[in-house]
Design brief:
Length: 258
């Protein structure tokens, strides 16, 4: 529209071509940016932050607790795998660029409850110094049409603004189960999952956003969610065996100060 004019949509009045205040960097006025106009002259004088649902904002953990790999016993194989998929691309993206290999986007942690899935997700966020965004799949199941999918969109918007970031989606089977013919609440859950698939396809790994999903029921997840390019690695967390219990006990003792 010119060096000092932009097209602004004002609800419910319509669209206007307005002047931009000299103090505003017009390069930041990208499509879908929220702005403020002066009442008298309609001059754009302020760029507003992205509108995010308060429920979504509460999902962001500003400072990740001091969860470390040393606190996790008996999961050396799982720690090595999540380092390869999440930590390595964030800390050394140049390795993937040099090889011409696409960075992984996400990983699925699956296994019985209480086997360390959440603790490992928090630990990798701590070691990568990433913003940790935790959401339960059940929180995205809303009774009003379109609410769940809107929350998913805003979740990824917040992740982009806070990058580098890790989105940890627990109980993903709540919205990611295999699709079946039906209506009512099931249709709304399917809309939410379709929006999640759309968001997974719509961001580039180089944006420093990684997705970690966790479930106790991998057998009921939709095949579309598990395909490469959305979930690039599946890591199993089995119940502890006799040989694994000892290092886990040592980790618990060290966490208590000996």
């Amino acid at each position: 529209m010119g060096k000092s004019k932009v097209l602004v949509k004002v609800n419910p009045e319509g669209k206007y071509v307005v002047d931009v205040d000299k103090a505003i960097d017009i390069a930041k006025c990208t499509p879908n940016t929220r702005v403020a106009l002066r009442n008298d002259s309609y001059v754009l004088h302020k760029i507003l932050p992205t509108k995010v649902d308060p429920l979504v904002s509460l999902m962001k953990v500003e400072k990740v607790p001091d969860s470390t790999y040393d606190m996790i016993g008996g999961l050396d194989k799982q720690i090595r795998e999540i380092k390869e998929v999440i930590e390595l691309p964030i800390k050394h993206p140049e390795l993937f660029d040099a090889l011409g290999v696409a960075q992984p986007k996400g990983v699925l942690l699956y296994g019985p409850p209480g086997t360390g899935k959440t603790l490992l997700a928090r630990a990798v966020a701590h070691h990568t110094d990433c913003t940790f965004i935790r959401v339960s799949g059940a929180e995205l199941v809303q009774k009003y049409i379109g609410e769940g999918s809107r929350m998913v969109r805003e979740l990824f918007v917040m992740a982009r603004e806070a990058s580098p970031s890790i989105i940890f989606m627990d109980e993903i089977d709540s919205i990611g189960s295999s699709r079946m013919e039906g209506g009512g609440g099931d249709s709304e859950v399917q809309r939410t999952m379709l929006e999640l698939l759309n968001q997974l396809d719509g961001f580039e790994p180089a944006q420093n956003i990684k997705v970690i999903m966790a479930t106790n029921r991998i057998d009921i997840l939709d095949a579309a969610l598990l395909r490469p390019g959305r979930i690039d690695r599946k890591i199993e967390f089995p119940n502890p065996t006799e040989g694994v219990s000892e290092p886990r006990c040592r980790a618990l003792k060290s966490g208590r100060g000996g």
